[in-house]
Design a protein that fits this description.
Elements: H1 5-24, E1 30-35, E2 40-43, H2 46-51, E3 55-61, E4 70-73, E5 77-78, E6 91-93, E7 97-106, E8 109-119, E9 125-132, E10 139-146, E11 155-161, E12 169-173, E13 178-183, E14 188-194, E15 197-205, E16 211-220, E17 225-232, E18 238-248
Parallel strand pairs: 3-9, 11-17
Antiparallel strand pairs: 1-2, 1-18, 3-6, 4-5, 4-7, 7-8, 9-10, 11-14, 12-13, 12-15, 15-16, 17-18
Length: 251
């Protein structure tokens, strides 16, 4: 195929834009993570992971009452175990087409309970959320890309709906505007850029605006990325837990 100088310039410019866009989706800083369960961890930057030919994946356990839940990526990557509301550290995975399996004990033997395949990109961060299906018939998973950058001015919030049979939910500041509307089960809403704030967040039903859960003493700080995971307890009560990610230059 003949490519003239004008077409060649266009191709080079397009490839450059694609590389910049891909680069921008990586985190060029290490990330410190804290959870409402008191866990804390540090992970390398997306640039370092990219140089190593790796994607970074962590697992969030949103299955009420579960203990020792484990996820396997192909046969080579066994993720750390986690209990309900647990968040594992980011785990490096050196494959781009990965079969993830949720593992559990059946008759004393570790067996796959749910499986799916995901396409990963080196240098990017992912959160895999394990939750119950509607009707509590089994397990389902959702993998999300974590877009984290070095912004020290705004705070960022996303909502992960992992509460089966809870219907669509709205999230709003008490007495203020809605931040998210009509978030469906297994869906993610966010990250949304917000001014830092302190106050009460309310989760309300999308149909009828019924108060479902009130979260007091919420403090969204500048430069921090918050994931609010909405779940149900073993007794069926709506509840939520937090994951906080902060880019840092200390690693």
């Amino acid at each position: 195929m003949f490519v003239n100088q004008r077409n060649l310039s266009f191709i080079v410019a397009t490839m450059s834009l694609m590389l910049v866009a891909c680069k921008g989706a990586q985190s060029d800083a290490a990330v410190a993570t804290a959870t409402s369960e008191g866990d804390a961890s540090m992970s390398v930057s997306g640039d370092v992971a990219d140089e190593r030919g790796q994607a970074l994946v962590r697992v969030v356990n949103a299955v009420a009452g579960s203990k020792g839940l484990q996820v396997r990526g192909d046969t080579a990557h066994m993720m750390p175990t986690s209990n309900y509301k647990g968040v594992t550290e980011y785990h490096p995975i050196d494959n781009t087409w990965v079969k993830f399996e949720v593992m559990g004990q059946i008759g004393g033997v570790m067996m796959p309970l749910e499986a799916n395949r995901e396409v990963l990109t080196n240098g990017h961060r992912y959160t895999m959320v394990v939750m119950r299906e509607e009707g509590d018939a089994g397990f389902t998973t959702r993998i999300l890309r974590d877009e984290i950058s070095m912004d020290h001015v705004k705070s960022y919030l996303r909502v992960i709906h992992a509460a089966p049979n809870a219907g669509e939910i709205d999230v709003q500041v008490k007495g203020g505007d809605k931040i998210f509307e009509g978030v469906n089960f297994t869906s993610e809403a966010g990250y949304k850029e917000l001014d830092p704030m302190s106050g009460v967040l309310e989760l309300r039903s999308e149909d009828g605006d019924k108060l479902l859960l009130s979260l007091p003493k919420v403090d969204l700080k500048a430069g921090t990325y918050y994931s609010l995971v909405v779940t149900k307890s073993a007794s069926g009560k709506l509840e939520a837990f937090w994951i906080e990610d902060s880019p840092t230059t200390s690693m």
